[in-house]
Amino acid sequence: MTEMAAEVLTEVRGQVGFITLNRAKALNALSLGMVRDLLATLLAWQKDDKVLAVAIRGNGREGPFGAFCAGGDIRFLHKAGSVGNPEIEDFFTEEYALNYLIHEFGKPYIAFMDGIVMGGGMGISQGGSARIVTERTKMAMPETIIGLFPDVGGGYFLSRCPGRVGEWLALTGDTIDGASAIAAKLADGFMPSDKQAAVWEQLGAEKFADSAAVQKWIASQYVAAGEGAIGNLPHIEKYFALPTARDIVQALEKDGDEWCQKTAAALRKRSPLMLEVVLEQVRRAREMTLAEDLRMERDMVRHCFYLRPGQSETIEGIRALVVDKDHAPRWNPARVEEVDAELVQAFFKSPWPAHSHPLAFLA
């Protein structure tokens, strides 16, 4: 494959391994091939003593940076899920293994989270030791919009946001900027977008004594992010602490505040079933290790496609958003008031015995 056609570009310069996601037209949405390339590259560099750290970025339409990663390839998921293509199973198993590897990498992993960082893009950045945002960062876990849930370890990292910020981000899919991402503990440092290229180049030119020196040097490049408070925090803390998604939606609707009304209206457009599933996911994950969370999410994603044959909220959500583009998903049930608690709990029953789980090997 030529370099221009490759979806993942890799090189080692100096003491650092560099990865560029190169699927700009799709905002670097992850394909199965990209997941496999990333896994193979990181496993090789993890064992290579000459590689002290890894840096990752996305190519935008105008060149490097500008778009990190918009998530997984949801068109592929719709097509594969609709026809029972077994590659859908491979995609999620291998993607979650990649997410785990990044968290447990053992060397500095520097993610330049410029532009869109959503879904699968969060999965390949949240485990990093240096999660860098810019003034152009648009961060979200918008899976409930397509009848899915915030996967790729989303239960783990969202549940560790301050207070009820994780529940708010998980249920609404709202987008936050770089400064808010730092406040939410989903980023480590701020860098002006026009400084990234110089820092990227210097990483490959500097002489570092060890991995710790790379981490220290990259942290020295951060600048103040400006205002970093998360807006409407009192409302988030009050309403997203309620026991069920139904309670949250109804309480927001009763509050005359503009933000509450807008948030309630957004939640009414999400899959009612998946709102309850996602709330349960985040709250269970708060008490889990990363490996336990990823195994739970792997169970959940199987159920998203196969729990109710012919009635997948995820396939219907993707259809409405990106296939037919009618933006009128036919959710079942149609209202959060109609969600059966037993159906919610079914998402958390593993289809596999523990010893045969696809992610049993995660520690």
TrEMBL record:
Record Gene3D superfamilies: 2-enoyl-CoA Hydratase, Chain A, domain 1
Molecular function (Gene Ontology), one example: isomerase activity
SUPFAM superfamilies according to UniProt: ClpP/crotonase
Record domain Enoyl-CoA hydratase/isomerase: where: 16-348
CDD domains: crotonase-like
Claim: Hydrolase is one of the keywords in the record: yes
Gene Ontology biological process terms in this record: L-valine catabolic process
Keywords: Hydrolase, Isomerase
Name of the protein described by the UniProt record: Enoyl-CoA hydratase/isomerase family protein
Organism of derivation: Diaphorobacter ruginosibacter
Lineage: Bacteria, Pseudomonadati, Pseudomonadota, Betaproteobacteria, Burkholderiales
